[in-house]
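Lab meeting minutes (informal)
Scribe: AK
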Amino acid sequence: MKRQPIAFDDLVIRSHHLWARQWLLLAAGDFAAGHFNAMTVGWGMLGTLWGKPVAQVFVRPTRYTYEFMERYDSFTLCVFSEHYRQALNLLGSRSGRDGNKIAQSGLTPIAATLVAAPAFAEAELIIECRKIYWQDLDPAHFLDPGIASNYPIRDYHRCYIGEIVAISGTPAYMCSAWLSASPTV
């Protein structure tokens, strides 16, 4: 996949669609050491916090990827075309504890440009992050009672915030491509 660097200010995405419909692949660990895992995520955010571009992801402590998020200081978020939906389904429904689900998915781990966590060759967008904060969700703070139904076994997510240190993607994710496709701005 041909990707090029994208400045955060030039990144164009449909945020809710990206998380809720397209999904992302969260990877954590150390690519060079061959010690990493990945999982499909559909909950998260991209934005600005503390004057930095950030990504926010949520990982349950029961997930194998949680161990890698705890041990290592970086993670990546990779976006794929619909062609890779089956691979993302597999990576979101199986545990890396039980076998090499990444190899089973057919995706190709590659070195990221600035962080130790791996990226994936087939990704059309790669967001590299350095962890800067974490917080466990506290059910006492749920203002909407319906939120609790997401936690039947009380395995509340840990929220991680990562400073976005690099982005690479296809031209479709760049402001210039979006502007040239728009009739008028």
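Next up, CB showed the second protein from the same session:
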Amino acid sequence: MARDIDTYLRELRGALEGADPALVQDALYDAEEHLRSELASITERFKDRPMEIAGEFEAAIGRYGSPLEVAAAYRGADEAPAVGLQSTAEPAVGVRPAVELQPASPLARPGLWRRFFGVVVDTGTYLALAYLLLSLVTGTVFFTIVVTGISVSGGFLILIIGIPFFLGFLAVVRALSLAEGRIVEKLLGIRMPRRSRSEPRGTGLGDRIRFWMKDRRTWTAMLYMILLLPLGIAYFTLSVTGLAGGLWLVVLPFVQVATGHSYVDIGDGWYQFPVWSLPLLVIAGVLVIVLMLHLVRSIGRAHGGFAKAMLVRLD
């Protein structure tokens, strides 16, 4: 059993080797915060008997659990997304499924057509679509907050109010990055951190600022929030334009049959599609919609990986 916090955290990281980085980050942050709190409490209670501090802290570590026990508890308690873009993915490296699964036989595999059109009934596809549409809003909000915060903080740093304002701005960035991680996890099915790292207890204002500024994720989170605006615009535009175009191709033949007009303006008048081409337009529209849904899923997966790289401590 480790007798100091740094050794315990190293052993816990080793016990969690192969687990999702977000799970590892949560486990390490929880352990560090709990053990530092215990050490501070023990040091205060036994300040007149310093020789007993080491033994009491070792007992506190024992009550918390060995690194292997804590790692097993986190692996078991971590909930895999019920729906999302990873619902058909392989289990994470180092995590064994509760039941050994036999390889699927070729006859049990869904056919090509089923795999192609199955995206239409996949809940994860529509959750990813919801994220791509929502990213325009969140990207605008995040971009505005970060750019405004950086600008105002830079102007206030020459004043006495500048330091607490900058500290508050960093706190907002960390809170927003945690909130974005929860959105990514719920809609894209990518495991993200569920808590942020607490600063050491008893630190002053300057130490707290240095602690947050030394954290690489403070800056990668700011960069992520700035980049989310152009990404959100691209995601929204691509999704709406592609799906609307496919839906219009499906609806167009019925509009022409019902009204006698296609409402497609080419040159100086309305273009009328030949009757024989109307079924082909419907088929083309369906194919466009299905292909767009596949693209939405792919973009969702890619963005989930990007969010994890920017918002999760991977080292």
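CB comment: The beta strands are 265-266, 269-270.
No objections, moving on.
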